[in-house]
């Protein structure tokens, strides 16, 4: 097996390990956070996260464009270092812009959220926005280094660092909470973690990759080339931020901090879903770019999409099925009966989002094919239509209505982008859907239906929940492996699992 493929398998295995670690940390840390901060305090903390997303999009979508340049010039270190210097200069200016944006947001906290929150809550929110802005500015200023590490497939370092940072940050936060700290101090710890990781990427690039790290100024030609590739990605980033973060802001402005907490818990698993799906497509991104640059036709791209999407679907449907069966029982045991409505928030969003995520490798194809503007337009239109629909359903069904609105918009957008791939790239969308779902979707439906029936007979408590979850995972996993996966897919799964056990591929 080639060294490059071995790195990708290791990177994918570590990516999934990172997701597992983050999930475990969330499961153990969130109850501590909610009990220490209270429902309102946790709602404010979640609201800051939603607002911070609007600072991070000031990256303007350039990171993927920068990574594509590094992939194209992976054998020319001189050209690479010149481009890196230009991008570091440009991104430093963006970092300064983020600081200004954070300051403006902090000033807007009282006019926007003052009517539904107390003055003390508004002041706390303003302070947390400023602290988060500092971390966002620092991270974005050094983003070109992260793009360089991804382009050179330094996935083992990246994922190992993120795993360590996740565990250490959670431990420090627990200590801070036990010492009487609040939401502001938790945001300070999170910001310190972000800055530390950015510095470590710089050190790795300079001393391991032998990159010459310096700051320059980009010329007009370089700016034009980056902007042409990045502009549609930026539009999509705005649209997706509207999709996933505006709901919390609207809920906070209309209903207050406590409902934000319920909604935030309901969509907590979104990021893990996205992480599971993108872990594989992310490590395959350089290879997808190379295939397209070598002239892969529509049939080859369809085959590539099917191969990636089937692995994504296997993981996602196992998780979605488990959440559908045990989700409400878990939420009540985990955080209390006041969070039971979060179950319906979760399902309303995750069911359509599973379709979107199981095919997210298509985004790389659209970027490289120069069709990302069309995808951007579709996503932006759906995001804008989602705003009035969310406000309307928010009045009828509360936070669940907001989730239903977002789920509808995600599904319609997914179908329209699939039509774009068929009409402009020539991909065989019908074959893609059939081949991706073959064996996997029928199993998911049967196992979930049986699980919902059996769940009614489980006794209460954590022991029964854990036993039921383990049985579900075992049955579904074995059924997927033996009944749905092809021989080649079983080989990949075997290699993937051996990586977790420390074996050789």
From TrEMBL:
It is a multi-pass membrane protein. PANTHER family: PSMA PROTEIN, PST FAMILY PREDICTED COLANIC ACID TRANSPORTER. It comes from the Bacteria. Coiled coil: none annotated. GO terms for cellular component: plasma membrane. It is found in: Cell membrane. Pfam families: Polysacc_synt (PF01943). Keywords: Cell membrane, Membrane, Transmembrane, Transmembrane helix. Its main location: membrane. The keyword Transport does not apply. InterPro entries: Poly_Biosynth_Transport, Polysacc_synth. The chain crosses the membrane at residues 12-36, 42-62, 83-105, 125-149, 156-177, 183-205, 226-244, 250-273, 314-336, 342-365, 377-397, 403-421, 433-453, 465-485. This is Uncharacterized protein.
């Amino acid at each position: 097996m080639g060294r490059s493929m071995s790195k990708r398998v290791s990177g994918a295995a570590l990516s999934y390990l990172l997701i597992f670690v983050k999930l475990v940390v969330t499961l153990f840390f969130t109850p501590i956070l909610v009990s220490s901060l209270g429902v309102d305090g946790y709602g404010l903390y979640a609201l800051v996260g939603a607002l911070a997303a609007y600072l991070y999009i000031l990256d303007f979508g350039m990171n993927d464009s920068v990574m594509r340049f590094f992939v194209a010039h992976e054998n020319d270190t001189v050209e690479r270092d010149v481009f890196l210097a230009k991008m570091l200069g440009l991104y430093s200016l963006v970092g300064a812009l983020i600081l200004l944006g954070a300051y403006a947001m902090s000033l807007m906290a009282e006019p926007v959220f003052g009517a539904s929150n107390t003055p003390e809550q508004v002041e706390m929110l303003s302070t947390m926005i400023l602290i988060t802005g500092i971390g966002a500015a620092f991270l974005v200023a050094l983003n070109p280094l992260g793009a360089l590490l991804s382009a050179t497939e330094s996935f083992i370092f990246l994922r190992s660092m993120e795993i360590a940072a996740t565990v250490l940050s959670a431990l420090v936060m627990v200590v801070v909470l036990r010492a009487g700290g609040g939401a502001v101090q938790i945001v300070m710890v999170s910001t310190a973690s972000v800055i530390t990781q950015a510095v470590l990427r710089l050190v790795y690039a300079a001393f391991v990759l032998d990159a010459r790290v310096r700051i320059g100024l980009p010329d007009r030609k370089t700016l034009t080339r980056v902007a042409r590739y990045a502009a549609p990605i930026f539009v999509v980033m705005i649209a997706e931020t509207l999709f996933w973060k505006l709901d919390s802001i609207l809920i906070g402005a209309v209903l207050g901090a406590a409902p934000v907490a319920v909604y935030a818990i309901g969509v907590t698993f979104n990021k893990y879903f996205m992480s599971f799906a993108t872990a594989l497509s992310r490590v395959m991104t350089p290879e997808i770019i190379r295939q397209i640059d070598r002239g892969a036709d529509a049939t080859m791209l369809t085959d590539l999409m099917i191969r990636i999407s089937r692995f994504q679907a296997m993981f996602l449907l196992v998780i979605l099925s488990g959440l559908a069966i045990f989700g409400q029982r878990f939420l009540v045991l985990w955080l209390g009966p006041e969070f039971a409505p979060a179950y319906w928030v979760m399902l309303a969003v995750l069911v359509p989002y599973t379709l979107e995520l199981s095919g997210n490798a298509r985004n790389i194809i659209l970027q490289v094919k120069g069709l990302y503007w069309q995808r951007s337009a579709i996503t932006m239109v759906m995001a804008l239509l989602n705003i009035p629909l969310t406000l309307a359903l928010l009045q009828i069904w509360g936070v669940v209505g907001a989730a239903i609105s977002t789920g509808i918009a995600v599904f319609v957008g997914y179908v329209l982008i699939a039509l774009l791939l068929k009409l402009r790239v020539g991909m065989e969308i019908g074959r893609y859907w059939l081949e991706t779902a073959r064996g996997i979707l029928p199993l998911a439906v049967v196992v979930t239906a049986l699980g919902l029936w059996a769940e009614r007979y489980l006794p209460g408590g954590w022991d029964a929940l854990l036993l039921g979850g383990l049985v579900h995972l075992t049955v579904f996993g074995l059924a997927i492996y033996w009944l749905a996966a092809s021989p080649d897919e079983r080989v990949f799964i075997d290699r993937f699992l051996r990586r977790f056990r420390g074996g050789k591929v």
